[in-house]
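Um, can you check?
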Amino acid sequence: MVVIEILKTRTCPWCPIATSVVRKVASETGAEVVETYLETEEGRKKAERLGVVSVPTILLDGEVFSVGVPDEEELKMAVEERKNER
């Protein structure tokens, strides 16, 4: 299963929109959604490890896919491509 993870903060004005896009794509593709807040220790460590400095950041299977609100169709195509590779 493809995992779409969104790295976000509680104060980010764009994060709710990005979260909606991620959830919609996941529901259409069967991907799993993980939401990680950078205010948590886990979130800070992950952001540091990946070099993330802006939110929202979208990860696909642990790799940075995009920064900012993702384009719904691009994200959906990327998820489908990963599903087909498996």
In short: Strands lie at 3-8, 32-37, 57-60, 63-67.
